[in-house]
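Let us practice reading a record.
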Amino acid sequence: MRDRLMGRQLKGKLVLATHNAGKLAEMRELLAPFGVMAIAAAELGLPEPEETGASFVSNAVIKACAAAERAKIPALADDSGLCVAALDDAPGINSARWAGPARDFGAAMKKVEQALQAAKARPPFKAHFVSALAVAFPNEETQSFEGKVFGELVFPPRGGLGFGYDPIFLPDGFSRTFGEMTRAEKHGIPADGSPALSHRARAFQAFARACLAN
């Protein structure tokens, strides 16, 4: 099944299996050059499935399969999060849960800072972002792709751009946080095929090579 999916190109409509406005905007921008019509799960009235997986990939697969089965068209899902070395890679797959039902990432970033203080960790606070993308066809198996970007955390948060934990994440080799970068800076796909900057764009590069027309 893996080899068959690797040779299959996506065309026409695709469901983006996310109810997160930030992820939706980023994924639509990444898909735009490929002529794929991206429809949000919320626009189709699709519910959010329970994320019971033990990894980013397994949760992305759960979301993609649920959307593809209900919508009867291919679906693309992302599961991503922040992994902090001094916290044994927490919050990890629970990154959204740390923000609570209200998705208050200001509170979530404060929670990370407090957890580092409780662990008596000292800077630099090494961390990395992970993004797992899964594409599912109706009644078929999925294909998954993963991207990572490494850096460190800074406090207090810096920048009002981006979303989630972006304002506290400083990627290696840069002086600005993701919260201080435009989406074009974070997610621009280099024409020479070299890795993009963000974790989601890196996962998307692998997905595009396998499933999207040039």
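A brief commentary: The two ends are 22 Å apart (CA to CA).
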